[in-house]
Amino acid sequence: MPPPETIYEEFEFANDMRETQASQFYRPYYVLLNHIFPPEEGYMVYPQYEPPMPSMSVDFRNIFTVRHKSYSVFFLQVKSSEDLSNISSRQEADLQMQEKFRHIIGAVRIGTLFGACAMGTKICIYMLHMGSRQLFRGPELVTEAALADRWNTDILTPEGQGRLCKIVQHIKEKIG
Hints:
Blueprint lengths: L4 H12 L9 H11 L6 E5 L15 E6 L2 E9 L7 H18 L7 E8 L2 E8 L4 E4 L2 E2 L11 E2 L3 H18 L1
Parallel strand pairs: 3-4
Antiparallel strand pairs: 1-2, 2-3, 4-5, 5-6, 5-8, 6-7
Helix pairs in contact: 1-2
């Protein structure tokens, strides 16, 4: 079931603000994740505040991890919409996503772990196949820096909402 329109109104409001801070999208993404991964189904959404290891370059203030019975099933990194037009920001976000996958791998009990990197309302989907330990960005194996066209899912569109709902459905089916 798609999220209610009021959630997407929050995204539109954040998108229309003159400021382009990533923090303006924290609330809409947190509410969205709690809707599609509800606590009454055993899911908990955790905002990250501190890095578990000081040496990690991941900005943990902008990551939400979804857990089911204490195991990670999904995570979302939130960046500014302006980062999409800057190649070094995309490269940094992509490297942070890869680092987060390496860090979280021990807390995964499903065959495929999904993650998403959001730049404003556009998201890039990542998948880690646990058996092979291969990381994919969209349909392609991660071998180079992410191009801007990898952020090809806009959650304000019906297609983007549908793609996100399919991923959530897949995760829930695998959990059983």
